[in-house]
Amino acid sequence: MNKLLQFIFILPISSTLTRFLGGNNIIYDYLNLTEGSRCNWNGLDGVCASPYHCRSAMEDIGHSRFPPICSVQGVKVFICCTDCELGDITDSFRVNAYTPVWYYKTGEKARDHCLDYLELETKTPYRCYYVYDHYDTYYNSTGNCYDVKFDDTPPGSSQGGVGGIPSNRDQYRHMALLGYGDHIDSAQWLCGGSLISNKFILTAGHCTASAKLGPVRYAALGILKRSDPLELWQRYLVKRIIPHPQYKPPSKYHDIALLETDTDVAFNKQVFPACLQFLANPRGDLWNSLAVATGWGALGHKRELADVMQAVYLDRYEPHECSLAYPRHRHLLQGYDHTTQMCYGNREIVRDTCEGDSGGPLQVYSLVARCVYSIIGVTSSGKSCGFAGNSGLYTRVIHYLSWIEGVVWPD
């Protein structure tokens, strides 16, 4: 049954994101079904729901592909949504302002704050210019519905630690350099970290203290080079050191920690937080097959620390390869633990993290935007760097997500 509808339905998110359903004598299929009823569109099984809950429908409406209307109840419209899973309400959506990609909040703290960072970027002079091209819907034959998946490729295949290349300014704006010693002006900057909020830096447990210099005391943000002039350094005192409660040095297990700064970090073009990985496998097995590690570590075995931040692109190793590379020893009593650890490197050429890169991030492009990274690992340890075929050991961030959320974003 067709019905002529002459109303306008507006998705009021922002002036650039408004979508219309109706108006101008457009003819729709009208199903006369209530919210929650089963429906069918183009041979696909669906459910009657608000467009606010239907990600693919919002995209369809934006391209003048109008789903059937189940019913109209006052000002509320319910359409036949053929998504396999309904999303949250549109008030919780964040939309990439440069392409029609929709993301939504779920109440999970790391995810929601990541989306807040995207929204903040689109409203500031240091906004994000590198974004996903689009997303596609894929037919799910089991459910006879559509899965919404983000189309993307791994973050490049450039060379980039050892075998790395210098980073560009403003490229890794979450990077922190950690300092040790009694005075900030004479501090030794020995570890890396990742800014993940306006108060907290993620790093490795073994970076919370130096055997010779004592606990970490300072964090520097906004720099590309160790030799950058002082006015480019945003320096903060470390107010609180929070190693994971299961971290027991010199063991390599649970090698993760949080540092709280003494004052709120000022975001700008050079300083902006990274996201944390919040989905276990968001785009299939290839999603994290290539990742990038960044830091100011040594440029090779027994070589000097890098002046310019280095980026090194690393391949993911399979669990059995990691187990062979990291068997049981006095600092890994149970050997490699795939639940809490992972290893990345290169099987053929010299490409690895090195001394001084500890605590820094292993990252991939975020689900939100290309200039926001998602931290999937924390640089923990490894064998002697500078040798072909080596892999480094990284703490698996998603395993510790609940602990991180409880510290950084407490209720």
From TrEMBL:
It comes from the Eukaryota. CDD domains: Tryp_SPc. Belongs to the peptidase S1 family. CLIP subfamily. The keyword Glycoprotein applies. Keywords: Disulfide bond, Glycoprotein, Hydrolase, Protease, Serine protease, Signal. It comes from Chrysodeixis includens. This is Peptidase S1 domain-containing protein. Residues 1-18 form the signal peptide. The keyword Disulfide bond applies. PROSITE patterns: TRYPSIN_DOM (PS50240), TRYPSIN_HIS (PS00134), TRYPSIN_SER (PS00135). Residues 161-409 form the Peptidase S1 domain. GO terms for biological process: proteolysis. The lineage of its organism: Eukaryota, Metazoa, Ecdysozoa, Arthropoda, Hexapoda. One of its GO terms (molecular function) is serine-type endopeptidase activity.
